Amino acid sequence: xxxxxxxxxxxxxxxxxxxxxxxxxxxxxxxxxxxxxxxxxxxxxxxxxxxxxxxxxxxxxxxxxxxxxxxxxxxxxxxxxxxxxxxxxxxxxxxxxxxxxxxxxxxxxxxxxxxxxxxxxxxxxxxxxxxxxxxxxxxxxxxxxxxxxxxxxxxxxxxxxxxxxxxxxxxxxxxxxxxxxxxxxxxxxxxxxxxxxxxxxxxxxxxxxxxxxxxxxxxxxxxxxxxxxxxxxxxxxxxxxxxxxxxxxxxxxxxxxxxxxxxxxxxxxxxxxxxxxxxxxxxxxxxxxxxxxxxxxxxxxxxxxxxxxxxxxxxxxxxxxxxxxxxxxxxxxxxxxxxxxxxxxxxxxxxxxxxxxxxxxxxxxxxxxxxxxxxxxxxxxxxxxxxxxxxxxxxxxxxxxxxxxxxxxxxxxxxxxxxxxxxxxxxxxxxxxxxxxxxxxxxxxxxxxxxxxxxxxxxxxxxxxxxxxxxxxxxxxxxxxxxxxxxxxxxxxxxxxxxxxxxxxx
Length: 506
Ligand code: KIV
Ligand code: ZN
Hints:
42% of the residues lie in helices and 20% in strands. The chain has 506 residues and is α/β, with parallel strands linked by helices. Strand 8, helix 9 and strand 9 (225-228) form a beta-alpha-beta unit. The longest helix is centred in the C-terminal third of the chain and has 20 residues, at 486-505. It starts with a strand and ends with a helix.
């Protein structure tokens, strides 16, 4: 059995400190419920002294959590903070007080204005004070990432001797390199007496984009708890993203001698929940939970994934609740991807028809960024309408606008294969095009209905036009046409209706 790594979630505390991400108690409770579904080991519910709202949140969250996880409350190394935290946690089934102090030269000299010895005294006093209220006391050595190795070891030795059960080594400013951070943890493992009886935690910020790497280096060196947040929410550039470290441990558990108990299938849901509550959107290329994390758009990758998913995916999207790999159809997609998607939509075509459709698809994809299922269906229907049509559209040029007179130049191939070009004008571009069609087809009719609808979302969507025409004998014919240009769709729809009318007449 590998080492169990505890997942300490601080979305509700460090995550909430992220500018613009503050949450009310109700919202925090919704997230806490999701954290329980994920089976996190510790929930840091807030910083009770900071506001009555935070105090209330810690109290309510701890009631909700019960025995299912440890509920933790943050304090500074100040007696009043600890007393208030203990009060907020008084009915908690598994309470933990998280107290600590800055240990880097800059924190001691510029922020706290204490000497190193005074810093150690305060750290010990805080742990001793917290121990009067709860058994489980976690100590954080703020800015440990920039501290002196020997001094850090002295502080940690003192708080372990004072009864701390967990020692948290934060890289508060996200300054370290992973190798160096790993060496720091190893230094504590080798130099603090009794450290094997306490849990070493890592809490890494993302200022250099390395929070996940730092946390993994910490685990490799002996840490048994990772502090993290959903989506990597947190101060400045954020905290360690839970979904990233948990999946990294899942992938490399044997090398790291580590596992977690997290239900990874909740990741995408949790990510969306936190994003919608905090209003902090998740970048599309975010690892594990971003919209593109399992999307493939280049032809080479699509071909590989369709042959075997793991050629380009290290994680099964279902394992993180992301459903299935996505094949995004764009101008870079190949035959294989188009065929696969059409088959998923229930269409099967021979190679020749598929080649024709691929050409139409590329024409469309050149105009649109992404081709959706509805676009494909529309393309297929368009090809069906064109197959066997008496008259087919070969070209259309329109000139219109203010103060021009709308004119249409239409080229159509007739049933004998002859190409005819005519010109006409009208009250608008559609009227001009329809008059030109009437010139060539000579099919008496009355246009009863005309409607246009976009096939998909976006301003580059295909427009689908439906028309209903009444023949001289009273029979009604419907026609449809789709194209990125709605005058072309309109003309295709009208031709489609008149082709039906003429076929019947024949
Ligand atoms: O980043 C940090 O050092 C913290 C501590 C309070 C644990 O958030
Ligand atoms: Zn932090």
